[in-house]
Write a structure and sequence with these properties.
With 170 residues, the protein is α+β, with helices and mostly antiparallel strands. The protein has helices at residues 16-22, 68-86, and strands at residues 11-14, 32-38, 42-47, 95-107, 117-127, 130-139, 142-155. The chain is globular.
């Protein structure tokens, strides 16, 4: 898989197959369609949810709205895939990015099934296996959410149910 270090123009596009190599999410849990690495600390990507997605079944009957938690999850997936793809020496089979904290979220407009949401994210700071991420999500040029959160990069073999997100990367 190409990495930022391999790319002369420092833009790397990840398709669905490349994303699946980096993230453990499958089926409806994989919210994102694409990721682009725009250098080591900037990522963008896209997500879209079908009306038939199980998470939308009861949210809200007669007026389906994509749950805010899915908008945040898609941002975390884009950041996790971007961080793993950009990190030299971290092999995705051994490491995973996890949502470690939500610092701030503001939801400006509803997102409806079938609407593509485009994300622009950047790393504010990174230290000891954690990256503080901020950015926004938009549909048709209109901001739908502003986000600030933390992704922890941890070794898969050190992450177990019930453990705190403190596993250092390999």
């Amino acid at each position: 898989m190409p990495t930022i270090a391999d790319s002369a123009e420092s833009v790397v596009e990840l398709d669905r197959l490349a994303i699946e190599r980096l993230l453990p999410h499958r089926g409806d849990a994989l919210c994102i369609r694409s990721v682009r690495l725009l250098g080591r600390d900037r990522f963008d990507g896209a997500a879209c949810w079908a009306a038939s997605a199980p998470a939308l079944a009861g949210h809200f009957p007669g007026l389906p709205i994509v749950p805010a938690v899915l908008i945040v999850e898609a941002a975390a997936q884009i950041a996790g895939a971007g961080l793993l793809a950009a990190a030299a020496g971290l092999h995705p089979d051994d490491n995973v990015g996890v949502l470690a904290a939500i610092r701030r979220c503001a939801f400006r407009r509803p997102v409806f099934p079938g609407q593509e949401v485009r994300y622009g994210l950047r790393v504010d700071q990174a230290s000891h296996g954690f990256a503080s991420i901020c950015g926004s999500a938009a549909h048709a040029g209109q901001v739908v959410a502003e986000l600030a959160f933390v992704i922890g990069l941890g070794r898969r073999d050190r992450l177990r149910p019930g453990d705190a997100c403190t596993a250092a990367p390999a």
